[in-house]
Amino acid sequence: MTTTTTASTTGHRGGTAAMSALALGGFAIGTTEFATMGLLPQMADTFDVSIPTAGHAISLYALGVVVGAPLIAGLAAKLPRKGLLIGLTIALAVGNGLSAIAPNAGLLVLARFVAGLPHGAYFGIAAVVAAALVPPERRGTAVSRIMVGLTLANLVGVPVVTAAGQRVGWRAAYVAVAVIAVVTTLAVARWLPHLPAARDASVTAELRAFRRPQVWFALVTGMIGFGGMFAVYSYISPLTTEVAGLPGGAVPWVLAVFGLGMTIGAAVGGRFVDRSVMGTVFGALVSVAAVLAVFGLTARFPAAAIGSVFLLGFASQILASALQVRLMDASPDAPSLASSSNHSALNIANGAGAWLGGLAITAGWGYPATAWVGVALSLAGLAVAGLSVLVARR
């Protein structure tokens, strides 16, 4: 592909700077996606709605990702990668600015939908670009490096903006993300090399990815299996305070623990993926299910709950990286759309996990019941992954 040839001429220093610029965009996106979950109680108070109702902001952000990822990646198949990534970071800044000034819950939900539109396309195209900057055998490591921005968001960005949101108002969190998105735009413009689309790129060529059964198996694995994590993480704030009995000031620290798990998962997960993509998918799904089961049994005990949150971040991040590379492998001639669609799948998981977890809560089963919803979703995703292997062997 033209992109690969052009990127391969990038020097080591330039490649590192380009990777860092792409990771900064991941930092902005990760912060805006996950900070909402830690600020749901404040949003609910502002608009005088219940926490599950405020959780619709999470679901509509996820819907924005689901719609935006394939739509943008497909329609923009012929655009130069650098210009497209710049446009996506500008859109991210606009969506978060609108979120910060939303006057009511309805418009906040709409603004979160807008903010979600560039999410999947950015990560998908950034992953393809990152893979083009390194030798083929190091694709897993390259994708994980881009995902480090997302993990650092959970380690640093989310706790900081959550703490700030609790002190000066949740709107400040979205203002901060908008500023980071602007800085990302400048960094991408400065450091990313010129990367034209492949000569044979077209909407039709990209859509051919969806003719491949293994692409659909990978997407459905993410849609279902990753929902297990979101069923719990969407309600991490009340789980921390109302179930584990920790003060509200502990929520940012618990979010940081989750982010630390994700960061370590990103650091080591790429090596696992480079060795065996599907083996990593299976191992990560089993690990997520096991951690959620332990969490469901021990959520009342602060130390055990915090340990489970760390392990949940660790295993979930490894799963995300593995699914990203799996989709790129399953559709080598249309990697942008397939890779971007991974984030559509993961955000269907986001919305579905939050919704199903909310149903368990409103049914009166309590916040710990979200963990058992998560176990069921993780095991269902494992079954889909197993079926994909059986079909591939026929």
UniProtKB/TrEMBL annotation:
Species per Swiss-Prot/TrEMBL record: Saccharothrix tamanrassetensis
Protein name: DHA1 family inner membrane transport protein
Membrane topology label: Multi-pass membrane protein
UniProt cross-references to Gene3D superfamilies, sorted A to Z: MFS general substrate transporter like domains
A GO CC annotation given for this chain: plasma membrane
A single MF term (Gene Ontology): transmembrane transporter activity
Record's keyword terms, sorted: Cell membrane, Membrane, Transmembrane, Transmembrane helix
Domain Major facilitator superfamily (MFS) profile: 18-394
InterPro entries the record matches: MFS, MFS_dom, MFS_Efflux_Transporters, MFS_trans_sf
Isomerase as UniProt keyword: no
